[in-house]
What does this fold into?
Amino acid sequence: MIVLAMDTSSVNATVAVCNENKILGEYTISSERAHSQMIMPMLESMLSSLSMTVKDVDVFAVCLGPGSFTGVRIGMAAMKTLAQTLSKPIVGISATESVAASFPFSDKYICPIFDARRNDVYNAIYLNGKKVTEDRIIDFDDLIREVKDKEVIFTGDATLKYRQVIEDMDNPNWQIAPMNLSMQRASSVASVALERAKENKFDNLYELSPIYIRLSQAEREYNLAHGISATI
It folds into this structure.
């Protein structure tokens, strides 16, 4: 079974193709350039290097977020279009789940954090591969208070922003994941999707939707201008 995965939910633009035994190829670029300009050429170049085409793919997998509103939409539009055009199944994976999947043998709490600005982070907490909380947005200080007595591994792109804060607290129960395990990677999305595909747990192409959690800035401004009350 060949899985093609894409994650554009963060500054990383990343695509990967995997089977049950190994990662066949993975391209990842961390860049401020628009993902819309980069991601499809990356995908095409990767497949070409493997002497493959999208017709060789059995399952498409995509990161649903939370993360960059524009980035998530780009990735979802691309993968849903390919799945629909080729009549192939699709699997959507949460960003927190794909990053947490990098720690399958740890008995500590895995705490992915992605920068949501205004001292907020997108987060979910995992233990032994299971979600302890749902995907959410939470004030970073509130999260720190929540996990202060737990053995925790912090991971996700917001560890770059909050590393010094976490280290200054000098909590012996806390660790920060190394760089190679903290950033979003399409191979992690593919790995989780592959396990679901083995159990025929595919998503409905037409019902699959992003995990936004917070309204976009445009939506918040629209609601404010039209007197619409909205909560995160």
The mean pLDDT is 91. The helical segments are 35-49, 69-86, 95-100, 140-147, 159-168, 179-182, 186-198, 217-225. DSSP finds eight helices and twelve strands in the chain. The CA atoms of residues 60 and 90 lie 5 Å apart.
